[in-house]
Amino acid sequence: MSVKNGDTIRVNYVGELTDGSCFDSSEGREPLEFTVGSQMVVPGFEAAVIGMEIGETKTVTLPPEEAYGEKNEDMTVEIPRQEFGADFTAKPGEQLLIQLGDGNQIPVTIMKIDEESVVLDANHQLAGQTLVFTITLVEILEQ
């Protein structure tokens, strides 16, 4: 029995950057459960599990276009410093949640702060990165 589109599966995984540093792992947690084809994980991860059998482990390298995409410079914005108020103490590298006009919130990373402005980046933190996943199929729940 192998994984096909539409199956609900459970996998253990380790996600690393090409330098070997780990950015995410299911180790110490329940396996990741998702339905293949539901776009709950990045496209390359979904494609990698198709055809896998229970107990099988594979390692895949995903270029940015199969993961979180390339960095989009249009998702970086400079906002006047005074809009953050006098008690704003965040530092570059920290993340904030920004509320959009429609009420939704998105995470942004502070790229730069100076006397006049704050530069925010709404790209996913892993955008532009090549990712390496080691995936083990634990279970096929529904076919």
Care to describe what's here?
The chain is mainly beta and 143 residues long. It has two domains: 8-69 and 126-142, Chitinase A, domain 3; 73-121, Thrombin, subunit H (Beta Barrel), CATH 2.40.10. It contains one helix and nine strands. The strands form two sheets. Strands 1, 2, 3, 4 and 9 form a five-stranded antiparallel sheet that branches. It has a four-stranded antiparallel sheet with strand order 5-8-7-6, with no helix packed on it. The longest helix has 7 residues, at 43-49. It starts with 7 loop residues before the first strand and ends with a strand. The mean pLDDT is 94.
Give the CATH class of the largest domain.
Alpha Beta
Order of helices and strands: EEEHEEEEEE
Distance from first to last alpha carbon: 10 Å
Mean pLDDT: 94
CATH architecture of the largest domain: Roll
| Number of β-strand runs | 9
The 3D shape can be described as elongated
Helical stretch count? 1
Beta-strand residue percentage: 35-45%
Q: Describe the main β-sheet briefly.
A: 5 strands, antiparallel
- Count the domains: 2
Helix content: under 10%
Radius of gyration over C-alpha positions, nearest whole angstrom: 19 Å
Quaternary structure type: single chain
Report the CATH topology name of the largest domain. Answer: Chitinase A, domain 3
What descriptive keywords fit this protein?
143 residues; mainly beta; Chitinase A, domain 3; Thrombin, subunit H; 2 domains; 4-stranded antiparallel β-sheet; 9 strands; 5% helix
List the helices and strands and how they pair.
Elements: E1 8-17, E2 22-25, E3 32-35, H1 43-49, E4 57-62, E5 76-80, E6 95-99, E7 105-113, E8 117-121, E9 131-142
Antiparallel strand pairs: 1-2, 1-3, 1-9, 4-9, 5-8, 6-7, 7-8
